Amino acid sequence: MKKLLAKKTLHDLAEESNHHHFKRVLGPFSLTALGIGAVIGAGIFVLTGLAAKEFAGPSLILSFVLSGIACIFVALCYAEFASMVPLAGSAYTYSYAALGEIFAWIIGWDLILEYSLASSLVAVGWSHYFIKLTELFGLHIPAWITNDYWTLSHHLKDALSQHVPYFFGIPVVFNLPAALIIVIITTLLVIGIKESARFNSIIVGIKLAVILLVIFVGWFYVKSDNWGNSFSAFAPFGIGGIGTGAAYVFFAYIGFDAVSTTAQEARNPKRDVPIGIIVSLALCTILYIAITAVLTGMIYYKDINIDAPLADAFSRYGLTKVSFFISVGAVAGLTSVLLVLLLSQSRILWAMAKDGLLSERIFAAVHPRFGTPHISTIIVGSCVALTASCFPIEEIAKLVNIGTLLAFCLVAAAVIILRVKDPHHPRAFKCPFVPVIPIMGILSCGYMMIRLELSTWLRLIAWLTAGTIIYAAYSRHHSKLAKTHALMKKQENLMTQ
């Protein structure tokens, strides 16, 4: 039990932050842009349509408010940890210091799933907007290479029966654009973090310009009747629908977590990472609420298009030029989201491998020229490309959020624990009103977890069960912390004898 609950000291983590092979090239602007790049994307361009139509209706506005408040609570906790422990690994690293190795493994294993699914979901959304963009130019790509089999068989049955090629009697159906964008982003991430950050900053500028255009132009086409004349019309799925909508769109906010995974590539992580987390989250929350109000005001929630909701809304009003710019912004915006998500996952794998919980030779290998964890980046990109090309966006979206919510609960709890265990450790940024803020973060995230479907919980349990088997078979035997403790105990026994 002592091995399972073994913890890293904050002093050891501080020492580790000074010994790595990454290049410290990111300043507060780049970190904030990374946060915005990850936060503004799938939530605005993809999930708004799905969540409004299926779970919350116009009250999705309140769902974003609820999710934003929960994220602000947790972001303050993240900012404190980032100022104390400027290491890659995010919630995994923080849990290792406060809760112990087994909890760190659970969170790390959980985040592997969440970032993979989040990247897959964004890639599918990117594909939908890319197709929308090509159609505006009069180009039509065959349905069998722009959809997964499930979507084609349920929504485009005529295309499936008439135009799909077969290989030994098996229909050849896959989402080629989704897979290709993953390959391109993976290549960029292997080349280097500085180049990736510069590319992301340019994309973020384009994305923000498009979003402000949508808010300004769309507001003139808002019809208050679409919001309803009573609360029951505004929230057709009730109070529970607002909570369920919040649980599903919560994925849209996880970009601030991605900022903390790049701490070892920040020039001044104790100052710049908290700035990047808080500024990106505050700005994005305001934009999410405004965009959702415009979308649900322009289109009655039952008529919202799930695949490309914003572009479709403006197309219905004959605003093809605006629809074009939205599609361009969505393609650019979702590209930056993919970059940050894939970047974050490879860093979490690197952190776990450096601790011996995964193969260090594979996942902690850093390219001698580019200074990036190239092998883990390629592995992640390959798995995400396969998932994105073969599974529908609705099913991926259901699996994304629950693990992130669990991770956020544990980070908030860890802040309280370390305030008690190590109150005098230097904190460049302090979460205010502890333990009230962390407790509010735990309660709000816990509520959204409860609102998710039972099948989502069962899939999480299955994934964590598989992770437990891997930990028991490999990780606990190769853990560097466990080996260090065993060596120290052996030395103590020899001294006693």
Keywords:
Amino acid/polyamine transporter I, mainly alpha, 72% helix, 497 residues, two-stranded antiparallel sheet
- Assign the CATH topology: Amino acid/polyamine transporter I
Briefly, what CATH class? Mainly Alpha
Order of helices and strands: HHHHHHHHEEHHHHHHHHHHHHHH
| Rg calculated over all Cα atoms | 23 Å
CATH structural architecture: Up-down Bundle
Pairing-aware structural class of the strands and helices?
A: mainly alpha
Structural domain count: 1
Major sheet: order of its strands? 1-2
Question: What would your notes on this structure say?
Answer:
This protein has 497 residues and is an all-alpha fold. The chain has a single domain, classed as Amino acid/polyamine transporter I, CATH 1.20.1740. Helices cover 72% and strands 1% of the residues. Strand 1 (166-167) and strand 2 form a beta hairpin. Helix 6 crosses helix 9. The relative contact order is 0.20.
Short description:
With 497 residues, the protein is mostly helical.
Topology:
Layout: H1 10-16, H2 28-39, H3 42-56, H4 60-84, H5 91-98, H6 101-136, H7 149-155, H8 157-162, E1 166-167, E2 170-171, H9 176-191, H10 193-218, H11 231-234, H12 238-249, H13 255-260, H14 269-298, H15 309-316, H16 320-354, H17 360-363, H18 374-390, H19 393-421, H20 436-450, H21 454-478, H22 480-496
Antiparallel strand pairs: 1-2
Helix pairs in contact: 2-10, 2-14, 2-16, 3-12, 3-14, 4-12, 4-14, 4-19, 4-20, 5-6, 5-19, 6-9, 6-16, 6-18, 6-19, 6-21, 9-16, 9-18, 10-14, 10-16, 12-20, 15-16, 16-18, 19-20, 19-21
